[in-house]
């Protein structure tokens, strides 16, 4: 094993232990939580090492980088998740490699993804509504970049559910740095769990709750996350912050 492979294996084992511990503490089954390794800024060779270590889900946040890596790893059986802010002019590329988009936050993006899936003639694309918890209490129509206000989730979810070629899978959020949940990941993910519960009442198949990163995966699992998105704890601190 190379040094890099050994380092990743060690870090991955530590993250697996943290997930195991969080599931036990929450009385949840380990099988209810899926680890997605966020590979942004790291090379395709790391993705290959991760696949060799049994990782099945990887995530990226920039189209150009993701498209190149997915092409370089096309021989691996991996699920690709897109988790970054998405411009409508990038969706034609994203639907070529992404299995799921976690960052659906506005009606215009729903329409663009639906059209791109039809044009590509691919299988349905899994979509999650990104919830901007820092905008809790904002008007439903006030959808902006980087997430919809919790009040806007039902409308956006309906748009996804009705859009040809798209499948509504659930919700995604990042613990906010601003607003009333800043520095309170437990409360933030608790609020997300409420949003997810309401969503399931209207759309029973939309069971995914994508929450929790390197710093707060325990709090997310405690609150019911089904998918944690972990980058630096597995691959190391990224040289540039993004
Ligand atoms: C980078 C990123 C992550 C992973 O963050 P870490 O702190 O490195 O674990 C998770 N989710 C999103 C949306 C990201 O952009």
UniProtKB/TrEMBL annotation:
A UniProt-annotated Pfam family: Ala_racemase_N
Xref: SUPFAM superfamilies: PLP-binding barrel
Keyword Repeat: no
Keywords, alphabetical: Pyridoxal phosphate
Keyword Magnesium: no
Modified residue annotations for N6-(pyridoxal phosphate)lysine: 40
InterPro entries: Ala_racemase_N, PLP-binding_barrel, PyrdxlP_homeostasis
Record domain Alanine racemase N-terminal: where: 29-239
Function: Pyridoxal 5'-phosphate (PLP)-binding protein, which is involved in PLP homeostasis.
Name of this protein: Pyridoxal phosphate homeostasis protein
Protein's organism: Streptomyces sodiiphilus
Organism lineage: Bacteria, Bacillati, Actinomycetota, Actinomycetes, Kitasatosporales
């Amino acid at each position: 094993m190379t040094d890099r492979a050994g380092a990743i294996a060690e870090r991955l084992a530590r993250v697996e232990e943290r997930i195991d511990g969080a599931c036990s503490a929450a009385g949840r089954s380990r099988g209810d939580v899926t680890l997605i390794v966020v590979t942004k800024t790291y090379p395709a060779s790391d993705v290959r090492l991760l696949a060799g270590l049994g990782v099945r889900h990887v995530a990226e946040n920039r189209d150009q980088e993701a498209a190149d890596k997915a092409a370089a790893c096309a021989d691996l059986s991996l699920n690709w998740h897109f988790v970054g802010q998405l411009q409508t002019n990038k969706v034609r590329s994203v639907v070529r490699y992404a299995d799921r988009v976690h960052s659906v936050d506005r009606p215009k993006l729903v329409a663009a993804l639906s059209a791109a899936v039809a044009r590509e003639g691919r299988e349905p694309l899994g979509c999650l509504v990104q919830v901007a918890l820092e905008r809790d209490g904002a008007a439903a129509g006030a959808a902006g970049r980087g997430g919809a206000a919790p009040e806007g989730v039902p409308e956006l979810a309906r748009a996804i559910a009705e859009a040809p070629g798209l499948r509504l899978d659930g919700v995604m959020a990042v613990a906010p740095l601003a607003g009333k949940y800043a520095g309170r990941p437990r409360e933030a993910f608790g609020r997300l769990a409420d949003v997810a519960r309401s969503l399931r009442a209207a759309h029973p198949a939309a069971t995914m709750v994508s929450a929790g990163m390197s710093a707060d995966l325990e709090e997310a699992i405690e609150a019911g996350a089904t998918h944690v998105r972990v980058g630096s704890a597995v691959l190391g601190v990224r040289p540039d912050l993004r």
